Amino acid sequence: MLRFVLRRLAQMVPVLVGLSLLLFAWVRALPGDPARALLGERATPEGLARVNEAYGFDQPVLAQYFIYVKALLQGDFGASIQTGQPVMDSFLERFPATIELGLTALLLAVVVGVPLGYLAARHQGRLLDTVVVSGSLLGVVTPVFFLAILLKLVFADTLHWLPTALRQNPRIDATHITNFYVLDGLLTQEWDAAWDAMVHLVLPAIALGTIPLAIIVRITRASVAEVMHEDYVRTAEAKGLAASTISRRHVLRNALLPVVTTIGLQAGLLFAGAVLTETVFAFNGIGQYLFEAIGRRDYPVLQGFILFIAIVYSLINLLVDLSYGLIDPRVRTG
Question: What are the residue ranges spanned by the domains of the chain?
């Protein structure tokens, strides 16, 4: 197992190197000039030259890349052109918000999606199956930003059931230890702060989790339907085993591998959806900050944040691979 983990971590190195090259080229291909975005209306030829020299933008692109890689190897991800704040500090400040939102959305998708997919497979061809499949198709094709705006319009602006934006009501005097607002409220026993943070998560989590939920439903339904027709399931039924035992030991366990793979992939893709969701709900996470950084042509922030996301995505996929052996003993990671 240790050898497998080390091998997978070693495989991440060329992937991250390749990503850094593509990312570096893509960022510099964006229209606009970071120096002009920084200076705005005060931009003069002399001022632009000073900014470009200060950040090394006056050097050849290849030389800029090697300087960037050298800094990365020393643990320096640079500083924001706009604020001067180190990229690592900005990431650690905003990442908890995205993790909190992403985990809530993923939990919603798994807790609702897996049972719905299982029930649809068990009632294949019936009304429940038709409703679930149709609903999952609608969930897949509905854009995240459209659903987020619709939820906000109906449940926040019209019905006033839920907050319209932010992570927490600013009038609440909450203590922030970890920047995970729900966790902070529980740790400090500030129950009103924890509850308010959870309420603020509802609409963004539904908007962000709808597409993963729909995909998990469809994959679970297909996987369970396939396993239900296997010989070992028929044999278990012929032996007179209880339906709950068959479902737990033979159907669900053998159907979980593709479902777990899908959950792992969706966990990584939630970061992409978070950009739109956090922007709509003014949720101060890395998604909203990336959106703002693109508009400001803030190269160090874009490069650092996307690299961090790639590392997290790779680690999630490593955990998914390791979970295979726990779910199905026939799978060995050697």
Answer: 89-284
Identity at 171, one-letter amino acid code: R
Dihedral sign computed on CA atoms, order 160, 161, 163, 164: negative
- State the Cα–Cα distance between residues 98 and 325, nearest whole angstrom: 29
In residues, how long is the chain? 334
Spell out the residues 6+ positions from residue 75 whose beta carbon is closer than 8 angstroms to its own.
none
Contacts of 186 (CB under 8 A, 6+ apart): 194
Rg over CA atoms, the chain:
24
> What is the phi-psi region of residue 172: left when phi exceeds 0, alpha when psi lies from -120 to 50, beta otherwise?
beta
Neighbours of 215 (CB within 10 A): 21
Interval 85-124: pLDDT, tens: 999 998 888 889 999 999 999 999 999 999 999 999 988 8
Looking at 1.10.3720.10, 3.40.50.2300, 1.10.569.10, 3.40.1190.20, the CATH number of the domain 89-284 comes to 1.10.3720.10
| Chain segment 10-29, per-residue pLDDT in tens | 888 888 888 888 888 888 88
pTM of the predicted model as reported, rounded to 2 decimal places = 0.83
Cβ proximity of 304 and 92 under 8 Å: no
